[in-house]
Write a sequence for this structure.
């Protein structure tokens, strides 16, 4: 049966003469016998720990910023699998790897079969010219790399930029809080999302309930999604392991995000698992102890 495995690899990200400490998600999709690796950031050993003894069919790079492709060539040698990347990202790739290219080109609409499931490539330029998302309809998920985050602008100020293309590709409606209209209009001036989110709104899906918690700070319309039946909350860029999410962005504010965390998230049970937008999971109880 197909499944998704996840790990986090810590390292640095270098671009335009600046270096940042980052935590990157590693996603491994497949079954007990074969899999693909989505992105290859900082550590081959971190990736191999998730892969185990499975055959790796491909190393798929959602884009070519160095913290997503840095160890791809080393991983290719270790697992004997091709690297796949969209050709529009060649200039980015060559910032990190100057002596060789990847093995197979990605293209919009390409389907990758692995471990009893299918991933469809969606070309979503914006964060990078060759950025792609990988849609897995049977698993009910899409791997967006750095194309789509929650709420406010990401490193390129374009976190919303490809939401429309993703919506059309997977035939889904877009939800956003009206307070994020100024952020949305940084990239979309001719249309809005489909349905407004609101604080305490409940979304029923797949036999569970997600409750919307408005948590401004990272962006005016930032929200977290609380799933009491699953004992978890999805915090996006509002709360990370070890403290508040990013506030060095347009429309963000540190005191506001801290107030949101204390008022809304710390009201949840201590044992609630926190699935963050970046980095490792944590719990509400652990974060209460770290945010004084």
């Amino acid at each position: 049966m197909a499944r998704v495995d996840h790990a986090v690899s810590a390292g640095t990200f270098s671009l335009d003469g600046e270096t940042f400490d980052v935590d990157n998600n590693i996603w491994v999709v497949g079954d007990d016998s074969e899999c693909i690796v989505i992105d290859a950031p900082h550590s081959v050993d971190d990736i191999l720990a998730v892969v185990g003894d499975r055959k790796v069919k491909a190393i798929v790079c959602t884009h070519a910023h160095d913290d997503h492709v840095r160890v791809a060539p080393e991983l290719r040698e270790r697992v004997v699998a091709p690297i796949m990347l969209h050709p529009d990202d060649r200039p980015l790739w060559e910032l990190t790897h100057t002596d060789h290219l990847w093995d197979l080109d990605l293209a919009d609409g390409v389907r990758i079969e692995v471990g009893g499931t299918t991933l469809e490539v969606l070309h979503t330029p914006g964060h990078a010219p060759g950025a792609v998302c990988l849609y897995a309809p049977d698993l009910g998920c899409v791997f967006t790399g750095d194309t789509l985050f929650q709420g406010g602008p990401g490193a390129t100020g374009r976190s919303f930029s490809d939401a429309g293309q993703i919506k059309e590709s997977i035939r889904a409606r877009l939800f956003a809080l009206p307070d994020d209209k100024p952020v949305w209009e940084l990239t979309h001036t001719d249309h809005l999302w489909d349905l407004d989110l609101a604080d305490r709104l409940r979304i029923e899906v797949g036999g569970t309930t997600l409750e919307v918690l408005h948590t401004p700070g990272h962006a005016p319309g930032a929200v977290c999604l609380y799933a009491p039946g699953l004992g978890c909350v999805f915090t996006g860029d509002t709360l990370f392991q070890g403290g508040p999410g990013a506030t060095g962005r347009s429309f963000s504010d540190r005191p506001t995000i801290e107030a949101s965390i204390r008022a809304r998230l710390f009201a949840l049970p201590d044992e609630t698992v926190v699935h963050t937008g970046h980095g490792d999971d944590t719990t509400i109880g652990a974060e209460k102890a770290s945010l004084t």
Summary: The CA atoms of residues 25 and 95 lie 21 Å apart. Confidence is low (pLDDT under 50) at residues 149-161. The helical segments are 44-51, 66-69, 72-79, 90-96, 163-170, 181-184, 254-265, 284-290.
